[in-house]
Each structure stands twice: as structure tokens, then as C-alpha cells.
Fold:
Amino acid sequence: MNADEHILQLPCVVLKSRQLLPQNSAIYYVIDEKFLVWYVGKAKNLCERWAGKGHHRLHQLQNQKKKLFTIYYELVAESQLDTLEQQRIEQYSPLLNKTKVKAKKIRPTETLLRETLHTIAPYCFILGVEPPRKLDSEFIKDSKYWRDDWRVEKTVLSNGKQIFHLILQIEPLLI
Structure:
């Protein structure tokens, strides 16, 4: 549903400038450039609610590349937030209030590493393995002699005990 005079007379901030929102309790309306109401919500602290990437609908709104969103808000006492939010949702039937929020898929680092190694396996082989450079006194001595101190700090891929040197090529390896 389109925003009416009630909403359009409220103070507003463009979504990209959401850090300018007040730190008050409020009912807020996310509206596009055609005045279509996308979302209605409540916040005890409006600025904190939209700070950073914390809002659960921010990703969905930012995926609408050709839309310019504005957050209109009405300052409301905390005790009235729940009641007013429900009334406004029923009144305006916002698009996103009717959809479920997609949960972020959290995957363990070990799983991501295993999948990455599996993906690059046809293009990669291990050239060599060496002890950590910071623990190799001969390497450190030689590096300082040749003024290559950066080599002591540089690691390619380290598990804390050894350094792995990997070779990657664009075409799959024929083994």
C-alpha cells in the first residue's frame, strides 16, 4: 500500500544516511521513491536499530538496487510501541512484513577450508613444506645477511607449525 499524508508529513532520513536517525523510541516506515510502504517496525532506540548492518531487513532492502528508500518515523512512548506497530502493519500491509527473514547461514571455518581445498585441488599442488620462518634461526640469519627481513614475516599458508607453499594454475593439472 502507498504511504498516506500521515506518514509523508513525518520526519525522515534516507536509508543511506540512517546514522542520522534519532536515539528515541519510534515506529518507522521504510518507503521507496514511489511512496510504497515496504516495511513497518518499532524500535526502542531508532538509531541503534539501524546502526551498521544490524537491521534484519537491511540486506533485502539493499538488494533492491534501483530503489531509493527513506525511513519515516514517528516518535512514540515505549509503552505504546507494540500496539501502534500492529495497527500500522494492519493499516498499510507492508511488503516485507509478510515475508520471513532469511537466516544467515553460518558455516564453520574448517568446512569452508575443506570445500575450498576440494575446489582448487585440480588446479593446485604442494610445492613444499617448511618449518615456521620465525623459528628457523638459519633462515633468519641468511635473510638479515641478504637484507630480506620481509621474508621472515611473510607466510603463504601457515597452520602455526609449518608453512605450505602451494602452486595454482588456471588449467587443471594432469596427474
